[in-house]
Design goal:
Blueprint (H helix, E strand, L loop, with lengths): L4 H8 L5 H22 L4 E3 L1 H9 L11 E5 H14 L4 E4 L12 E5 L2 E5 L13 E9 L2 H20 L7 H23 L6 E4 L9 E2 H4 L3 E5 L2 E5 L3 H9 L15 E6 L1
Parallel strand pairs: 2-6
Antiparallel strand pairs: 1-2, 3-4, 4-6, 5-11, 6-7, 7-8, 9-10
Helix pairs in contact: 3-8, 5-6
Length: about 270
């Protein structure tokens, strides 16, 4: 590890900066999610760059402006049912049951005392816009099924990307998302059961790919994440090596992969 943590903080997320404030809000959201998961015996673990930050920085990557967690799909579905009634008034679930224009196949938990707009522009049709935590369900699925599911979801992105005004196509996006969620994805899951799959991937319709065997995930390990002990995959170093290669080394252009460009926090 060849970096100075104090210098990185001073450069990218000094106390009082927008990035620092976002990270503190995300940490608060994570603690609420963690408490609810513990209460109802549901397991989650840090994902992607959040997992990398936990191991390399013992917290957020200094320039990171999002926080990701993963869950097995049965726990995820249970959490989606529980969250609306257990979240405090200052936090809201963003899922198709709470935001009819939300078409992603993973959920967001949003802070109500902030406003963030991402580079993609899709979020303009959504109801909630606060600082968020992404919750990704994972399930056993063959790669062909995952790729096909993402191809059908891609039509939603294409319509929004090519429309002059996203609101002009929101009805079509909503209809296609419901078709995917209620017919196409359940059908793909039923067909995919014929294949014996011993690894987990992001749920159908999620445009990211991982491959993790269950014994690479469980039992989870707890590591320092800021002022909090957070769960990570059991074989976290192996997973990071696959996804990020020399994961303890800093990238050449730190801070160039931020997701947000318009942030207000109060």
């Amino acid at each position: 590890m060849s970096f100075n943590a104090k210098e990185l903080k001073e450069k990218y997320n000094p106390d009082g900066s927008v990035t620092y404030k976002m990270q503190q809000r995300m940490l608060d959201l994570l603690k609420v999610i963690d408490a609810i998961c513990r209460k109802h015996n549901m397991q989650y673990w840090l994902s992607g760059g959040t997992m990398l930050g936990a191991i390399r920085h013992q917290g957020f990557i200094p320039w990171d402006d999002d926080l990701d967690i993963e869950m097995f799909r049965p726990d995820f579905e249970k959490l989606m049912r529980i969250l609306p009634s257990e979240l405090p008034d200052s936090i809201r679930l963003q899922w198709h049951t709470t935001d009819k224009n939300y078409f992603f196949q993973y959920a967001k938990v949003r802070d109500c005392n902030s406003e963030v707009f991402e580079h993609n522009g899709y979020d303009k049709i959504w109801r909630e816009h606060g600082v968020w935590v992404d919750i990704f369900p994972v399930e056993p699925s063959p790669r062909w099924a995952h790729k096909l599911s993402c191809a059908t979801l891609g039509h939603c992105y294409k319509m929004l990307r090519t429309a002059k005004d996203p609101n002009d196509v929101v009805g079509k996006v909503r209809l296609l998302a419901a078709l995917n969620r209620n017919i196409i994805y359940p059908l793909l899951r039923a067909i995919a059961k014929v294949w014996r799959v011993d690894y987990y991937d992001f749920s159908l319709g999620t445009p990211y790919y991982i491959r993790s065997k269950k014994d690479a995930i469980l039992p989870v390990r707890y590591v320092k994440f800021e002022d909090f002990e957070a769960p990570v995959m059991n074989k976290v170093e192996e997973a990071l090596s696959v996804r990020f290669h020399n994961y303890m080394e800093l990238p050449e252009n730190p801070g160039s992969q931020n997701h947000s460009d318009d942030v207000k926090i109060w």
